[in-house]
């Protein structure tokens, strides 16, 4: 199968998507029990995974992103994508050789003494080869895969078609992932990754950022040999954080390595600016001296100043047990859906945070996280689309830290690192102290009295508003379902009329199909407009 052939790729992906959509609709119309739905999502995950491995390219990265969305997608589906890796067979050396010489506009031997023809690493977009420059310096030469630009463009066109279809015909639940925003975010990140000049800029930016941090090592880059398709960097030897035998021989222990990982990545997640969006074990190594080595800055995300402020406030709220403030931060960040009840969320956070570190020793962390994912799916909580890459980076580093240290030590490691980071923030410390004071029981009494007096009126207003919203949403959903059924009836009628050569049936079915389709689109447009209005109104 020719993976770079436009028709082959589009037909494979579109046919897979169509079969998945039809199965979901069929189960929905027949009102299948929950057990049957679990089996279906397992089958869908298996088919999805198989197609990704066969076609590779951009699709692998999409699978990796979806594997982090346990807050939205069924566990049976997520399970099939857990160990999805961005590792594909290397390209033919002759093609790689041609790309390098084309980009350098010179024969290869004019810049390098030697280069290994076997790739050190091979991913969906680029491959890395080890070479030696004329002055004897060992370098890593990252080369873009042949035809990857056209493959990515084909995949984006195909995804655009699928998202358009899903947006208009698939009954996506309220608060589900915004596919349009995700598509836009994904396109920006991948297009950036396809331009190695931008990766060079990111690498230099991170190198400047960590120049005074002794525990971090970032390779130097050779700008004069780097182009949009070739990136030449210093060759850095490192140990994978998954290599248990090699880690035990280091000067630093695993606890210290876990602490250093948090120290390196925590500021990226809490401060405005860019963060490493792909910190998998091949991109985050450790030197013999115990330094954290950061590689591959092709995928980076960005945190705005506003979001950084709320993230900082969220962690401070957890540490001071000020769950009212925590819920406010979650709401401002977009993690809570409009129908979320703040009081319920405060009690839930208080219960979760009441688990003491010593209790974690008695818990099966994996089972606990699975139960937590199920609970999150049942609550009005979502991960905003703009934080998909941040969430992926966090989940990856969290898994690495848990592997390095015992599970019950996670909180003990993170807290002092956060406090150390906080002490460097200057005036922000006083905001932390003020939040601690607000969290004390004596301070909360004044707020509680006022809120208690206003509670009956607020509850009545909330109840009335929610009932009206639910009633309106039900009307839209019922109308869409009826119009969709009429559209299907029209399609069946058209097929029957054409097969039986019955003009009247054919014409009536065409008319029914056109009218019901237009009605469905109009109803769907009005529903989306109404939901957007209600969401903005609720947040004001």
UniProtKB/TrEMBL annotation:
SUPFAM superfamilies: Protein kinase-like (PK-like)
Keywords for the protein's UniProt record, in alphabetical order: Membrane, Transmembrane, Transmembrane helix
Domain Protein kinase per the UniProt entry, residue ranges: 114-443
Matching PROSITE patterns: PROTEIN_KINASE_DOM
Coiled coil: none
Ranges that cross the membrane: 508-525
Pfam families, sorted: ABC1 (PF03109)
Gene3D superfamilies attached to this UniProt entry: Transferase(Phosphotransferase) domain 1
Domain of life: Bacteria
Claim: Repeat is one of the keywords in the record: no
PANTHER family cross-referenced by the UniProt entry: CHAPERONE-ACTIVITY OF BC1 COMPLEX CABC1 -RELATED, PROTEIN ACTIVITY OF BC1 COMPLEX KINASE 7, CHLOROPLASTIC
Family indicated by similarity: Belongs to the protein kinase superfamily. ADCK protein kinase family.
Entry protein name: AarF/UbiB family protein
């Amino acid at each position: 199968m020719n993976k770079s052939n436009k028709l082959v790729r589009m037909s494979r992906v579109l046919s897979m998507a169509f079969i998945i959509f039809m199965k979901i609709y069929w189960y929905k119309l027949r009102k299948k029990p929950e057990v049957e739905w679990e089996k279906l999502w397992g089958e869908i995950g298996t088919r999805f995974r198989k197609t990704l491995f066969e076609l590779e390219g951009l699709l692998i990265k999409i699978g990796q992103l979806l594997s982090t969305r346990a807050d939205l997608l069924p566990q049976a589906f997520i399970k099939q994508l857990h160990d999805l890796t961005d590792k594909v067979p290397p390209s033919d050396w002759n093609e790689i050789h041609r790309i390098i010489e084309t980009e350098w506009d010179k024969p290869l031997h004019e810049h390098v003494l030697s280069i290994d023809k076997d790739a050190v690493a091979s991913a969906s977009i680029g491959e890395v080869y080890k070479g030696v420059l004329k002055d004897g310096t060992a370098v890593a030469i990252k080369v873009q895969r042949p035809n990857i630009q056209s493959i990515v463009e084909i995949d984006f066109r195909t995804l655009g078609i699928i998202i358009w279809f899903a947006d208009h015909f698939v009954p996506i639940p309220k608060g589900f992932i915004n596919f349009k925003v995700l598509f836009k975010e994904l396109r920006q990140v991948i297009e950036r990754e396809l331009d190695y000049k931008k990766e060079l800029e990111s690498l230099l930016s991170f190198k400047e950022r960590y120049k005074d941090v002794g525990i971090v090592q970032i390779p130097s880059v050779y700008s004069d040999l780097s182009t949009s398709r070739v990136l030449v960097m210093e060759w850095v030897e490192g140990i994978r954080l998954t290599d248990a035998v090699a880690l035990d021989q280091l000067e630093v222990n695993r606890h210290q390595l876990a602490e250093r990982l948090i120290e390196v990545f925590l500021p990226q997640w809490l401060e405005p600016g860019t963060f490493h969006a792909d910190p998998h074990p091949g991109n985050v190594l450790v030197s013999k001296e115990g330094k954290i080595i950061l590689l591959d800055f092709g995928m980076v995300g960005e945190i705005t100043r506003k979001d950084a402020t709320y993230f900082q406030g969220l962690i401070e709220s957890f540490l001071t047990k000020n769950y009212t403030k925590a819920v406010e931060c979650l709401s401002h960040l977009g993690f809570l859906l409009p129908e979320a009840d703040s009081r319920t969320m405060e009690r839930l956070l208080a219960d979760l945070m009441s688990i003491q570190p010593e209790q974690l020793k008695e818990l099966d962390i994996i089972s606990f996280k699975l139960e937590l994912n199920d609970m999150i799916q049942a609550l009005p909580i979502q991960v905003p689309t703009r934080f998909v890459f941040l969430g992926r980076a966090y989940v990856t580093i969290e898994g690495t830290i848990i592997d390095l240290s015992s599970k019950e030590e996670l909180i003990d490691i993170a807290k002092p690192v956060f406090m150390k980071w906080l002490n460097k923030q200057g005036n922000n410390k006083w905001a932390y102290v003020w939040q601690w004071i607000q969290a004390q029981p004596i301070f909360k009494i004044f707020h509680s009295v006022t809120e208690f007096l206003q509670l009956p009126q607020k509850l009545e207003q909330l109840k009335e508003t929610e009932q009206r919203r639910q009633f309106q949403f039900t009307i839209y959903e019922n109308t869409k379902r009826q119009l969709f059924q009429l559209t299907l009836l029209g399609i069946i009628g058209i097929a029957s009329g054409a097969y039986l050569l019955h003009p009247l049936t054919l014409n009536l079915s065409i008319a029914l199909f056109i009218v019901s389709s237009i009605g469905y689109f109009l109803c769907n447009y009005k529903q989306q407009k109404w939901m957007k209005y209600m969401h903005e109104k609720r947040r004001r």
